[in-house]
Amino acid sequence: MPTLRYFRRPLLKQSLESVFTVNPSQTVNQSDAKPLDVARIRADFPILSRTVNGKPLVYLDNAATTQKPKPVIAAVQHVYESMNANIHRGVHRLSVETTAAYEKSRLQVARLINAAKESEIVFVRGATEGINLVAQTFGRTHLVEGDEIIVSTLEHHANIVPWQILCEQTGAQLKVVPVDDDANFLIDEYKKLLSEKTRIVAMLQSSNALGTVIPVTEVTRLAHDVGATVLIDGSQSVQHHPVDVREIDCDFYVFSGHKMYAPSGVGVLYGKEALLASMPPYQGGGEMIKSVTFEQTIYNDLPHKFEAGTPNIEGTIGLGAAIAYLQDIGLSNIAAYEAQLLKYATEQLSKIPEVRLIGTAKEKVSVISFVVEGIHPHDIGTVLDQEGVAIRTGHHCAQPTMQRFNVPATARASMCFYNTEADIDQLVDAIQKTIKVFA
């Protein structure tokens, strides 16, 4: 009797073609920006109708995690109610249907970021695991003592610590690109750090703490000029504007589902096919193998070589639903609306004398960090919560960034397309009340 791997593929291909249809036009290229029906969008997010401490909820912590629209909630619920089964390993109807839905999400991700092939999309638990995977497979394979890794001052801890670990393991050195007083990325300083010793450049595309957008296409081109490999952390980008990994030409790209309206516990590692094929597996277990004997194991093809064990099936299917939802609205439309919202919020907060904005780069996503003279950010967050306003306070997993601006922490309001100017007005009113409380 043939093994499962020989006859399951045609079944799954047929299921993908007949059960699910993905619109080929749903790529990163969006039409000219159109006004958003924000009232309709808000109705898609059940949590936005609740109250907190007797006040309407104003959710401005989207850089930490986003709320989930009804289509995503319904997709996850449908998995459990109608098709729950393990994937890639069964020939019964539930397994075939669930596998088809899971693999449809892979196709949607590939089209979202314009990957050349579906096999270049590896599902992981989040951007953090994707970065660690690259560090511990590609990095440990290629780096030796004296090599250099370049990051920026603005990085999330998830794009610092894995490279520090790799440096300890290999003897490589970590180099850091500075930013100016407005948190603009200093491209000329980056050029000075590049050399024949540079092996990896790992940069965020947009800062979670300050919102700064880094010119990753130029960063990648310059890195490739010296033979370096480039990883881009897009955790704060894919939900805000179109992303094209082939235009950027990065070698790896990572992002997390929960920051783009999908469930938590699922993320994406994109890698160029040749690089992924050359890398050893990150974990061993089921699905990442073709055959196992006590004498030898033969690893599976891409991308399954990196997807050991039972994954977050329902979360991945929910990710596909989130992508479809974003593409229906239009990422260019989202980018235009959020730019207007950021402009309005910046103007309103700047009118409060006690407020000092931290990070006023020329290019930003919709994130505002600020401090209020004489009031600790945690106290700001506590009082704002009493007014129904949810923001994030602290170092935002970006302690080197806080050190650069000589602050222990900031208050951060991060906006998305379901936020409104009325939300910003409520934020401003709550900040003014906070100032009076501590006066």
Within CATH, the superfamily of the largest domain carries the name: Type I PLP-dependent aspartate aminotransferase-like (Major domain)
Number of structurally distinct domains: 2
Order of strands across the main sheet = 4-10-9-8-7-5-6
**Which segments are poorly predicted (pLDDT under 50) over 5 or more consecutive residues?**
1-31
Please bin the fraction of helical residues.
40-55%
First-residue to last-residue Cα separation: 80 Å
Number of helices: 15
Query: Could you describe the largest sheet, including whether it forms a barrel?
Result: 7 strands, mixed
CATH class of the largest domain: Alpha Beta
Helix/strand class? alpha/beta
Q: What fraction strand?
A: 15-25%
- Under the CATH scheme, which architecture of the largest domain would be assigned? 3-Layer(aba) Sandwich
- Using only C-alpha atoms, the radius of gyration works out to 23 Å
The overall pLDDT average reads: 92
The third-level CATH topology of the largest domain is Aspartate Aminotransferase, domain 2
Question: What features would you highlight for this structure?
Answer:
17 strands; Aspartate Aminotransferase, domain 2; 2 domains; 4-stranded antiparallel beta sheet; alpha/beta; single chain; 7-stranded mixed beta sheet; 439 residues; Aspartate Aminotransferase, domain 1
Structure description:
There is one protein chain. This protein has 439 residues and is an alpha/beta fold. It has two domains: 99-328, Aspartate Aminotransferase, domain 2 (3-Layer(aba) Sandwich); 331-437, Aspartate Aminotransferase, domain 1 (Alpha-Beta Complex). The protein has 15 helices and 17 strands. The strands form five sheets. It has a seven-stranded mixed beta sheet, sandwiched between helices. A hairpin with a 2-residue loop joins strand 1 and strand 2 (55-56). It is globular, with a radius of gyration of 23 Å.
